Amino acid sequence: MARGRAPGFDATREQILAQAARLFANQGYSGTSMNQVAEACEVSKPTLYHYVRDKQELLVQICQNHLQHLVDLVEQVKMRELPPEEHLRALILQFVQSYGEAQNEHRVLTEDLKFLDDEHRERLIGVERQVVSQFADAVAAVRPELRGAHLHKPLTMLLFGMINWTFTWLRPDGALTYEAVAPMVADLFFGGVGAVRLQQQAS
What is the pLDDT of residue 10? Predict the structure, then answer.
């Protein structure tokens, strides 16, 4: 009979993932050893391997969990059945605040995904594309003509440019918080998206 998981296994594993994300974010995936992860978690290296197979699995789980959280946020906003502008604004607010709460995990996703093997990387990129597609649909719902001009996705990527890289300049101990910046991002996008002009397509 296979041995069951000890009580608290999942909680301990989540703590290990959190510590690994902090190390990867601060010193890079390549610059972090399993010895350092074990030391940060205050466990022996054999104990660490009881919870994760190797460093690659740590990276997979950090990225996968973060992306799944974002997928869940999209679904939660969708279930509220808001009007188009309120729906997109809610998505922006949720994502900016979520990135503020998971800065380490988000940095790992944006900077270290390239270190995954092809199979895992392509699968997770597929999930990213699903999330981006949901945002693009929300942008098109605000201005339907953007879809016909094939601009809803480029505008979505410009929006993500603001959201994704906030952690590179917003100091955790600064005067501005993620909660304060979130509505600013939404206001900036909505103040500008209405001014986008559709170019006439060459015949």
Answer: 85
Instruction: Give the range of the structural domain holding residue 92, as residue numbers without chain letter.
Output: 55-192
Write down the pLDDT at residue 34.
96
Could you tell me the CATH number of the domain that includes residue 171? Answer: 1.10.357.10
Which residues lie below 8 Å from residue 116, measured CB to CB, with a gap of 6+? 56, 59, 60, 63, 124
Residue 154 in domain: yes
pLDDT of residue 195: 79
How many CB atoms neighbour CB 103 within 10 A? 17
49 is a domain residue: no
Query: Could you tell me if residue 177 is inside a domain?
Result: yes
Count of domains forming the chain: 1
Q: CA-CA distance, 165 to 70, in Å (whole number)?
A: 16
pLDDT beneath 70, residues of the chain: 1-7, 200-203
- What is the gyration radius of the CA atoms in the chain, in angstroms? 20
Instruction: Specify the pLDDT at position 203.
Output: 43
pLDDT at 54: 95
Question: How far is the C-alpha of 185 from the C-alpha of 162, rounded, in Å?
Answer: 7
Question: Measured between alpha carbons, how far is 13 from 35 in angstroms, rounded to an integer?
Answer: 16
Q: How many alpha carbons fall within 13 Å on the CB side of residue 49?
A: 7
Q: Which of 95, 99, 116 is nearest to 186 (CA)?
A: 95
Residue type, 121: R
The pLDDT of residue 200 = 54
- Please measure the distance between the N-terminal and C-terminal CA atoms of the chain and give it in whole angstroms: 70
